[in-house]
Amino acid sequence: MFNSAIANLTMKPEHFRLGGWTVRPDERALSKKGCVRRIDPKVMDLLVLPAQRPGDVVSRNDIFDALWPNVVVGDDALAKTVSRLRKALGDDVAAPRFIETVPKRGYRLMAPVVPVSTARPRRPEARGLRTLLFSPIARAVIAASMVGAIALTT
Residue 77: left if φ>0, alpha if ψ -120 to 50, beta else—which one? Predict the structure, then answer.
């Protein structure tokens, strides 16, 4: 059965912020204040699915269809995956800040989902010796050195 939950996971998810975390689905990474946590693909898929539908409750059936298509798994597989996601985010089931359990329905993200640019800052290109030698400053330094060397030899 093909549904929108599966279609959402096949699109390339963008980077986003969730609470204080920056989520990079393509790297399976969560980062906050210099701390980077790598998470398993299923755990990341579980995070991305409701992030693509902020504020909506994602049904257990939609989660099963998206994370385990054409495979029969028990409720314990979902419970363990949710638990691992909560642990990675530092969330607490008794006082959740990120993942809300909606009894008999599914799960919802509580923290706002804010897209971030995936464009990485460009690194300055490496300068080769030839570029360095032909820059105006380098030419001035070389000329001054040559004049100084000539003056010392005379």
Answer: alpha
* pLDDT value of residue 147: 75
Comparing CA positions, the residue from 102, 104, 80, 82 lying closest to residue 91 is 82
CA-CA distance, 80 to 58, in Å (whole number)? 17
Cα-to-chain-centroid distance, residue 84: 17
Q: Show the CA angle centred on residue 82, arms to residues 24 and 16, nearest 5°.
A: 20
Please tell me the pTM assigned to this model.
Answer: 0.69
Report in angstroms the alpha-carbon separations of 111 from 2, 9, 46, 49, 54.
28, 20, 15, 14, 9
Angle of CA points 93, 99, 103, to nearest 5°? 70
User: Per the structure block, which two tokens stand in for 138?
Assistant: 């380098």
127 pLDDT above the threshold of 70: no
Nearest-CA neighbor of 51 among 92, 94, 112, 128? 112
The label of the residue with tokens 């008794």 reads 94
- Distance CA(106)–CA(29), nearest Å, equals 24
